[in-house]
Amino acid sequence: MNRRKFINLIGCSCLSFSLHGCASAPITDRKQLKIIPESKLNAQAAAIYEKVKEKEKMSDDKKTLDQIKEIGKKIEFSINSYFNKENLKNPTIGFDWEYILIENDKVKNAWCMPGGKIAVYTGILDVTKNTNGLAAVMGHEIAHAVAKHSIERASRGVLVQTGTSLIDIFSGGALSQINRSTGMDTVGLISSIGIMNPFNRKQESEADYLGMIFSSLSGYDIRETEKIWERMKEANKGKEPPEFMSTHPSSDNRIKNIQGWLNEIIIKYPPIT
Hints:
The chain is mainly alpha-helical and about 270 residues long. The protein has ten helices and five strands, in the order H-E-E-H-H-E-E-E-H-H-H-H-H-H-H.
């Protein structure tokens, strides 16, 4: 097979991936590429979650864990109710929700794996401060899973890796030569900054927006969201990389976006009763 035919074949294959993997994010309707099966990623996430539970120290703070579970159940209910009410496909069908509280005061973090596997670290509690703050953080993390961001990132990673390999082949190994001459993965860094980081920042902003919606639908005061990121900004003072090198929006841009969305979300997405 000559080079032209091979390029055409690969082009058709990529187009097929794009056509068959095209979807839209819930509520925002942002176009997404998803070529990794959700069931496969959910199963992998569940297995990793079990390992996390074995490796990490679980907190014995039953009161806080019960609070986390209560917030989670309210958000679960509001998501189900909203999509049913709007006659939309429920993106959480097949989720096996689970909540844990990890004892680690140094880690100011929380996350939600594909399929609804959620972890909150005790270190984030100094930032959340109250129930509305905790709901804001959990709403954001749950939004990542609801919007299938992990599937999207995995799918894009496959295409970026494939594209980079093909370019290297047809450039006579020029990309590999750049990496060897610089002594680092220069091409990977360029791809990260130029393709993946802006893409990840878009997902983070989408999770901020959707998370505020889910918290509002669940009856929490989303005005606390801005305060959360003000406190997070203070906690990370001097530690934030320039936005173009980060997978997250800068704190200032994040807060600005939240301020712009606040009134719209409160009016458009009132609590579900």
